[in-house]
Amino acid sequence: MKTSTKVEIGIPLLLVISDCIAVLLSYLISYELRFFTFFDELLPRDTALPEIEEYIIFSLIILPIWVIVFQSYKMYRLKRVVFIFDELSDIVKASTVSVIFAMALVFFYREYSYSRVVFVMSWFFAIILITIFRYLVLKFEKTLYNNNIGVKRVAIVGVNDISEKIYKKLCNETFLGLHFVGYFTKNNTDESGITDLKRIGSYDNLPVMIRKEKIDNLIVALKSEDHGDVFPLIKKCEGLNIEFMFAPDYFNILTSKLKIEELEGIPFMKLKSIPLNIWKRIVKRLFDIITASILIFIFSPVMLIIAVLVKFTSPGPVFYRQERVGLDGVKFNMIKFRSMIVDAEKEGPKSADEQLSRYTVVGKWLRKYSLDELPQFFNVLNGSMSMVGPRPEREFFINQLKDEIDNFLERHRVKAGVTGWSQVNGLRGAKTSYQTRIEYDIYYIENWSLAFDIKIIFKTLKEMLFSKEAF
């Protein structure tokens, strides 16, 4: 058995074991808190102290329910997850369903009365413990991959900007457990290639080289005009036990999640829809208000110090208001600490990189750590911005770029953010193209979730502390 196969079996099994331990511990902790702390006085019992053995037996009985529910949420597949918050939403949903099933079971079992407080507490502690244990399993999985244990051998089919971007993005991410063996070209005379990756064959000898190189995964990265090659390639791989992954030209029209909907028996492929429905907008808005309020409270001493430094080190106001374009193309005034000299743009708008010589001494320091952005928390509170979303641009630059860059105006389908998916992936400044940033912004819009926002905020804090570049 290959080590990659052992890891594919071992990690999910380890997740099942860790989840079971977490559930058992959550019931034990909840039992102790309910009956041996102030809760026992706060919520007096009508009966004698229940035996802990009853709760242990019950928790063992319902363990299969938890495992089945978690499996239904596809929580035991080897996803090669990069960040634990990618799973947090599913952990909460699966835990909630499991507790509801457990309470329903208790309702029909009349021979013993179980505390509902214990169930509520166990739900809370189960989420925390399962998240912690899964994080530890994730760290263990990454350690295996970093030591070249259980990695999958991957080859790319197709040579173009898509395959170049895929390889560049994934080649150094050892924690994903992917080892790139090489790439296949359409024919032997094709002289194009992927930087730093060797050519291992053409479409004609694909099956032979897959066996020879012991390839586990094929990533097919073709431009839209070459999509006719996909089915012949699949045909060539018949009988080979490999994973066949198709990476379409999603950097163009296919950035959206494809959805199939049926109307009166007619299937329709939905390429574009409203990114956030009413409930998602409510959840995101509540999250924005709570997060912005907490961060304003935490950073208020820092903001006060910055205000004093800005005021007494250079002439001019403390705050700088600049007109930006946000949701649905509506303009708003974005607030920042002033980091440049007064009238820095009297000759017209310039990009951040063109403004470097006009920063004040304090302003350079503020930009380095992105601290000039802190007042934007107030933009979040007044509803003109969100904590996470595409960074807002000025109308001057939008008019320049909207006809040059595909899908540029798509970023106005959600509120502009204090931070964003493209920023935490290092896509800022003159070193990166607007086209690449737009691709990441649209990916965020089409894949929004509360867990995704939390992930981006944590990555932002990491960037602020350790990155040498400002947002």
Explain the overall architecture.
This protein is an alpha/beta fold and 471 residues long. It folds into three domains: 3-146, no CATH class; 152-249, 3-Layer(aba) Sandwich (Rossmann fold), CATH 3.40.50; 278-466, no CATH class. Helices cover 49% and strands 12% of the residues. It has 15 helices and eleven strands. The chain has helices at residues 3-36, 39-42, 52-72, 85-108, 116-146, 161-170, 206-212, 230-236, 278-313, 361-368, 376-381, 395-401, 421-424, 434-446, 450-466; strands at 152-157, 178-185, 199-202, 217-221, 243-247, 259-263, 266-270, 319-325, 331-337, 386-388, 417-419. Strands 3-2-1-4-5 form a five-stranded parallel beta sheet, with helices on one face. It has a two-stranded antiparallel ribbon with strand order 6-7. β1 (152-157), α6 and β2 form a beta-alpha-beta unit. α1 packs across α3 (52-72) and α4 (85-108) packs antiparallel against α15 (450-466). The chain is flat. The protein starts with a helix and ends in a 5-residue tail after the last helix. The mean pLDDT is 82.
Largest sheet: 5 strands, parallel
Beta fraction: 5-15%
Give the overall shape.
Answer: flat
Level of helix content?
A: 40-55%
- What is the mean pLDDT? 82
* Structural class by sheet pairing and helices: alpha/beta
Summarize the structure.
The protein is of the alpha/beta class and 471 residues long. Helices cover 49% and strands 12% of the residues.
Task: List the SSEs and their pairings.
Blueprint: H1 3-36, H2 39-42, H3 52-72, H4 85-108, H5 116-146, E1 152-157, H6 161-170, E2 178-185, E3 199-202, H7 206-212, E4 217-221, H8 230-236, E5 243-247, E6 259-263, E7 266-270, H9 278-313, E8 319-325, E9 331-337, H10 361-368, H11 376-381, E10 386-388, H12 395-401, E11 417-419, H13 421-424, H14 434-446, H15 450-466
Parallel strand pairs: 1-2, 1-4, 2-3, 4-5, 10-11
Antiparallel strand pairs: 6-7, 8-9
